[in-house]
Amino acid sequence: MNHAEAWHRTHLIRLYEHWDDWNAEYFAGEMTPPYLLLSTPNCPRALGDCSSISGFGGRSQIRLRVSLLTGTHPIMQPDSPEEGKFRFVADVLLHEMIHQWQQEVTGISENSYHGHGRTFRDKCNEIGSNIGLRQVGLKTRGGLPPCSSWPHSVRNDGYYFGAILRASAKAPESELGSDEPPSPVPRPIGKRGSFSEVEAIARYARLVLEPAEIQALIRLLEF
Asked: What are the structural domain ranges in the chain?
């Protein structure tokens, strides 16, 4: 923190304050302060990820996608209030804290659910009941919003002050966490090169690619 650039330090101070408060309130203070990094997660679709060991061997690391804070990520509204973008990233942190809790305290990885199984769901609902959020469920089960995108999937539309481009103001399912593979490109109806096919590819690209990569794809499609 002492050597961080001013922009990073401003956000990291607030994020660490949230981590301290939430660790005490929701996790009985049992977790080790992680290295919080404003960086790019391993999975192209992930908004954040959590590792038990950092890239340089430190204990516990949480990465938060920096383009969410700058507003350059495809799901973000660049001109939205800074507080809205920060709230979204803080929610990513809270999500990743449950993964940290699984790694450090419970030891339950739930790999068959890509980390978002029953234990993860129950912790989401336990915390959610304290902050007024509706319940979530397992992916494609029970008709409830998926815990894999909690808490974004159950925040009201105004919570992020319009920071999200999607009308529902909710993160797409599977964008939270670090190990869930991207779903296949939707197979459109129509002949090759039709508008429906290009539109389907463009929608998928906004989920998995960075802005510069999207522009490269557009140039390729135009060619």
From this structure: 6-154, 185-223
